[in-house]
Amino acid sequence: MKKVFVSGCYDIVHAGHIQFFEEARALGDYLIVSFASEPVLWHHKQRKPSIPDEHKKVLLESLRMVDKVILGTGIKKGLDFEEEFLQERPDVLAVTEDDLYSGIKKELCSRVGASYVVLPKTPPKFAPVSTTMLVNRIKAPSTVPLRVDFAGGWLDVPRYARKGSYVVNCAITPMVSLCEWPYEKRSGLGGSGAWAMLEGRDPVASELALGVGWQDPAVIAETGLCVWRSGSSPVLDVKGTGDFLEGRMAILYTGEEHDTPRMADEQRDYVRISQSSLIARTGVLERNINTLAAGVALYYSVQLDEGMQPLPDIPNALAKKYLGGGYGGYALYLFPCRDDRDQAVKDNPAMKRVEPYCRQLFK
Questions:
Q1: Measuring CA to CA, how many Å separate 61 from each of 9, 41, 340?
Q2: What's the pTM?
Q3: What is the pLDDT of residue 360?
Q4: What angle do CA 7, 200, 250 make, to 5 degrees?
């Protein structure tokens, strides 16, 4: 009988583990699976397992391709299974291509005459995941807000950052989830950053990988009415609840999707964008919607110069602008009072009320 040995944490067993077990079992007649015990996991990764060891052992033993399950109890990094391996004396130690401890494992194999076999990465039967990805997904929030941006857009893109400038934005309700999304998609409200957060992915890294900036996940995670310093990463300058904006904001869907990454390399007036951020920041500090609206209006003039179509005039609106990268999606309108906002929503079926959302004022 040819015995095959594999080891790992297997903290949350997923389809990738099953595929690896099947391929390892095909190398012989008997598969032994060793997993790092709770003390070992804590010693090396400073975290407890997702389920108790005895439950994990029963789970692994129930798999049809697994013949025996043992706990790795050693504290030597990469060889927590050393003692158990020497007792079992398998014929094969199977590892994946990304094995970080090949040297010491090959030496261990030589002590019992076992073969060290690297299983190539075969096309996965399912989208590949990792235990870390699954843990992050479990820990991810079930709902998050989206956001509106007032001024300073594009200054959160690292290559366009300007010292002494800002990005001004606000988290909004209604909330979104993976199951409910009460807005149009691809609409300039920070949806891609929100979706990454809901899936448990790093939202800032996800946005930067698209070639755009960090403002969406930054304010969605922080919540509130925020002023951020322009730069390569989020640095909060000022935060408020945004309560003076309650009843004063609405968004109008233009009927067209927009694509922020596609617009990232367009020519635009960064001097006026920077000026808009300074004005809007003053509006936030003074809690003055008219000053904030002046910053929004200046940013909108930059958007028009980029070739965006003029937005509809809405009675009594203080200011308006395309959200996100523009050229479609939603437009933001600011109003002096709730009655004017609500009347505008009543008169325009494509317009939607939004309110500021702040989970907490201070971290």
A1: 15, 20, 66
A2: 0.70
A3: 62
A4: 175
